[in-house]
Amino acid sequence: MKCPYCGSFETKVLDKRETDGRSVTRRRRECLACEKRFTTYERAEVLDLFVIKKDQRREAFNRVKLRRNLMKACEKRPISQETIDHLIGEIEQQLIGMRKSEIDSRSIGDLVMDILKDTDRVAYIRFASVYRDFKDETDFEKELQQFTQNSQ
Fold this sequence. Notes:
This protein is α+β, with helices and mostly antiparallel strands. The chain has helices at residues 63-74, 81-97, 105-119, 121-131, 137-151; strands spanning 11-19, 24-31, 37-43, 50-52, 58-60, 102-104.
């Protein structure tokens, strides 16, 4: 494994754990050259999925893009990195469970919103504001009203 700090290939594993229902192996490593520590994750690539965008373009499902969007929605919220990783794993499991090779981006967005709604209300509203392309404060108000009505 290549050290992200110095580029050395000489590392050792300090700790190994199974996470996300044993579908991901987390390894804590130490570089033997610079002695810095870093974490790696190993998972099987079973999600061979294409996303159909609004303009009908198709692109491969991108876990990094999902992570980036979730991180933005959860920024400055009391949500740990471990929780975000769990959310991503849960979303991927649901996508795998659909047994489709193509899925429209709206379905993925709806799935993310459903999961965020149960995790953190502010993160949910942040994600919704981008996903649903809010134009002004009335869009926020409408979403908040729907959210509170559905929560009761």
